[in-house]
Amino acid sequence: MRLALKEEERRRARFIMGITHDLKTPLALIKGYTEAIADGMTSDPAALKQSLAIIAGKSDQLETMINDLLSFIKIDTGEWRGALTSVNLTAFLCDYAERIKSDAELLRHVFESDIRLPPDTQVPMDTALVVRALENLIGNAIRYTPEGGLVRLSAWLEPDELAKPAPPPSRIVIEVRDNGPGIGADDLPHVFETFYRGTSSRREQGMGLGLSVVKGVVETHGWTISVHSRENGSGGAAFRIGIPPVSSLPSGE
Length: 253
Hints:
Blueprint: H1 2-38, H2 45-77, E1 85-88, H3 89-106, E2 110-115, E3 122-125, H4 127-144, E4 150-159, E5 170-178, H5 210-220, E6 224-229, E7 237-243
Parallel strand pairs: 2-4
Antiparallel strand pairs: 1-3, 4-5, 5-7, 6-7
Helix pairs in contact: 1-2, 2-5, 4-5
């Protein structure tokens, strides 16, 4: 018991140290460019515009990092458990895809969706956390896919081989796929680890919490997640969320 408590204390200390370190970088840049503008060092209109764009970008990065942190803590403390409600997943995914399409186009990417679920598909879930997980997956896909690249959100039914009795009921699969550089074979087993940052072409940015948050959201709902990419780290990556038949899902009570 004592060893377990000490290990938990060490884990939390590492977590806080990692968060502190990663938050400092964008904060330092925002402060530096703000001071430069205040001192008149960027009086040239073009330089001023560039400095403001950097400040805006780093502010967005900070917002993403803070949202990831809040989601991570929510999952870690189990606060999500009281927020499960029955959601029409088909309508939810279609509405979400419509919103994301404009964001992708703004960033000069091609976004497609293919939601092949019955119109009345109901799934108990914490909507805010699921949105956060999808935003992390699609955000990563957009970030690592070159301009003009394709990002695709799909959903379909397939037999649940683990379910009984036969014939097995269908499980829901949600997939986020891109045609970017893919994930290297060395990184693939570690992409969901907290604070892990890839060593190849899809190096994790920020705190290394994004995909860890996704995994936490998925697993605390009783779902599964897997990642697929070609061994040579090219040809894109695909993240698949598997939702078992509704009867075997955890309740919100």
